[in-house]
Amino acid sequence: MAETIGAEVTVGDELPPLSVRVTRDQLVRYAGASLDFNPIHWNERFATEVGLPGVIAHGMLTMALGGRLVTDWLGDPARLVEYGARFTRPVVVPDDGVGALVEFTGKVAQVRDDGTARIDITAKFEGRTVLGKAQAVVRL
């Protein structure tokens, strides 16, 4: 797909959607990789005691999955120039082996004269947005 990305990209183009199931097992692996062992990401009792609805996914894991939407489309992760987002809602991950379904979509919002484009990313869990102002700048 990467060979087709370039001059043909126009404002309004949609990236292929990405749906990911986040499981407790993934949370444990992500905690090990990131060294973020906060108990809200693995301990149900602790998470509810601090007012959360249950164990939640790491915000940076959710953000990384949004980045995957873009890099899968680009075909080359080195073409991702800039990426940022705000965490607006938690992704609650049940202990059921199935996990939480997070759905990502993206749209070309701007094509710039310098050979880059801005991609607006939407991340939803249970129909509600979990990343705010998620935007990536890519080299076409």
From TrEMBL:
<comment type="similarity">
    <text>Belongs to the enoyl-CoA hydratase/isomerase family.</text>
</comment>
<dbReference type="InterPro" id="IPR029069">
    <property type="entry name" value="HotDog_dom_sf"/>
</dbReference>
<dbReference type="Pfam" id="PF01575">
    <property type="entry name" value="MaoC_dehydratas"/>
</dbReference>
<protein>
    <submittedName>
        <fullName>Acyl dehydratase</fullName>
    </submittedName>
</protein>
<dbReference type="InterPro" id="IPR002539">
    <property type="entry name" value="MaoC-like_dom"/>
</dbReference>
<feature type="domain" description="MaoC-like">
    <location>
        <begin position="18"/>
        <end position="108"/>
    </location>
</feature>
